[in-house]
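FORM 12-B: Structure-to-Sequence Request
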């Protein structure tokens, strides 16, 4: 009996080639899927990064706008402070300028002919006067004159007549060319208060005696 032999080698080679093709297809598919997945992940991450960059940029723009507004507010506050400081300085200068002028007017209206002022000093409404007079009576007259300088509703004046227990006082207004008017006592206030004789000495000079004196008082510049 003759045995039949079958050559299976071609079949095996065909199967190997088929399996090789399938493997290549699988590998290619895996590469494609992996590449697509990587591309998708990269694309989503890039989009997220872009979105966050835009958010950061928007936040920075808002911060810049707020800082600009804060800077403008601070600048306004600084300018306001500068204006307030300038107004305060001007007000102070105005008071310093008007105070001594009123003081000199008041002193001139109270000074007798035989009294002379050698020096005076004013600080915070406290006045110190150094002067001389021909006699103690002249110095006393000067002190009475200082006490008679008053504020009236119409400005500074000098009392020319004051009767005991009278409600009205006759005053010569310094700013009205010597006009004389009557005012209620309650309408008047002293320009100088606390007039005090600190020192008074009789001295001789050039064959003539005189009285050297020092006065202290408080000046009221406010009307």
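FORM 12-B RESPONSE
SEQUENCE OUT:
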């Amino acid at each position: 009996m003759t045995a039949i032999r079958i050559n299976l080698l071609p079949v095996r080679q065909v199967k190997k080639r088929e399996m090789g093709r399938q493997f290549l297809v699988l590998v290619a598919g895996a590469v494609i899927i992996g590449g697509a997945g990587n591309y998708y992940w990269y694309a989503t991450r890039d989009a997220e990064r872009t979105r966050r960059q835009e958010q950061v940029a928007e936040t920075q723009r808002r911060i810049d706008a707020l800082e600009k507004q804060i800077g403008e507010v601070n600048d306004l506050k600084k300018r306001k402070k500068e204006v307030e400081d300038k107004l305060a300085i001007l007000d102070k200068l105005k008071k310093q300028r008007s105070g001594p002028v009123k003081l000199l007017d008041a002193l001139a209206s109270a000074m007798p002919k035989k009294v002379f002022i050698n020096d005076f000093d004013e600080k915070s409404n406290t006045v110190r006067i150094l002067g001389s007079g021909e006699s103690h009576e002249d110095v006393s007259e000067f002190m009475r004159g200082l006490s008679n300088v008053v504020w009236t509703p119409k400005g500074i004046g000098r009392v020319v007549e004051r009767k005991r227990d009278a409600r009205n006082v006759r005053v010569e207004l310094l700013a009205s060319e010597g006009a004389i008017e009557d005012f209620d006592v309650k309408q008047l206030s002293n320009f100088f208060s606390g007039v005090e004789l600190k020192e008074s000495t009789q001295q001789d000079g050039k064959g003539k005696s005189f009285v050297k004196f020092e006065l202290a008082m408080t000046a009221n510049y406010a009307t």
